[in-house]
Amino acid sequence: MKSMSSSIVELAPPEVVALYEPVIGLEVHVQLATATKIFCGCPTSFGAPPNTNVCPVCLGLPGALPVLSQQAVEMAIKAGLALNCRIRPVSRFARKNYFYPDLPKGYQISQYDEPLAEEGWVDISVDGEPKRIRVNRVHMEDDAGKSLHEGFRDSSRYTYVDLNRCGTPLIEIVSEPDMRSSQEAYDFLTELKQVIQFVGVSSCDMEKGHLRCDANVSVMRKGADKFGTKAEVKNLNSFRFLKAALDYEIVRQVAVLESGGRIEQETRLYDPDTGQTAGMRSKEHAHDYRYFPEPDLLPLKISDRWLSEIRAQMPELPAQKRKRFIEEYGLREYDAQVLTATRAVAEYFERAAGTSSDPRSAANWVIGDLAGLLNSAGKDIAESPVSPEHLGELVALIGKGEISGKIAKEIFPKMFESGQPPSIIIEKEGLRQISDVGALDKMIDDAIAANPKQVDQYRGGKTAVLGFLVGQVMKASRGQANPALVNERLKARLG
Ligand SMILES: [Zn+2]
Fold it and tell me: 493 C-alpha vs ligand 1 centroid, how far in Å?
């Protein structure tokens, strides 16, 4: 294996790879977050004992008839709308026939030439410029079961089958071959995942297989107008694997072409252990799925009224939110990006900003101190012990000059620890900023008396010494003196 990989790099060094342009399209399966399966009432819960979440419908027993889940359709429509697709008024289910031990029906119920949603797009950013990746279609289908080849004492001889996943609702999102690098594919999938999570139709948890990705890859000489022969790469179950597999596959294809070979149209599997892809089956022997319209289901009709009801439930999407955060709160592009990473973060920020009267400062606290403490506590923002209102209050107290920024940094971890509002902690610990002129003047006089040398220097024209004297007063007040006021009074005193 090792020698194969080195020969590929020798045959296609970076300067040769640079002569080619990759062409990438993705097929993404997303598990919808319905409580029940797509054509029966069995639960979709993860981790149930094997073969317990099943019934005659999802086991494909003779005579059992599918009933389409309305919730699954609504979620699929939301995904379609979030990906800027046109929703077809009439779509149709079709049987995709193939034999596999974890597919007891002998076919998957999918959609073929009349999918639910078509002609959408996702915008990504390439070198700071927006690039539109077209989405060819979004269709609905049911999932198959799972074949377990490992983990049993007799796994060397037997494969076990768990049919709990049979009938779990999926959508398949097919992009156009618009991506030209592994980074673009990575960014497309990132954006897609974020949008799907925002509309709340899937957790997109890759570890649980709720988001699965296959890639179609080919390479062509730069400037060519005809795409090369593509290979389909499967088993890309993390963002990192997607990028690594594409990078390997691009170099491999260039190496094959450079050595005078031709690319086979085939399905290849990515092996995370070797970082390589290997041929699995040739497309020449590909399945003919013999699609035909599903006779047990009526065409799926979506009325204008139903569609507008669903449209009205759509939340603000990440891109719109980013734009609004920049315009409404004056945030920087980067901050807006971070604060719209998930819906929970965005909602937290907006609530904090609302009570803070200083949204930019609230943004800094959420991105900086809060994220830091959450990270080290291993907590999600939804579990934050500091409520957004309390964080907003803390920011407002700094703004009003009741506490200094330095004191706020000391209070915040205590808020995180106790869940208490800042006002309680300030009161309890006597941390309120000292703005009482009488008290300040006393401390200022003490500082002047204790530092005659610096006072002389200042009076002699060395005004930079003022900072030192302010520092002495701040120290005497244990950081609680109002610095602006100290500055002002000290100058007046020194005349
Ligand atoms: Zn069932």
Answer: 84
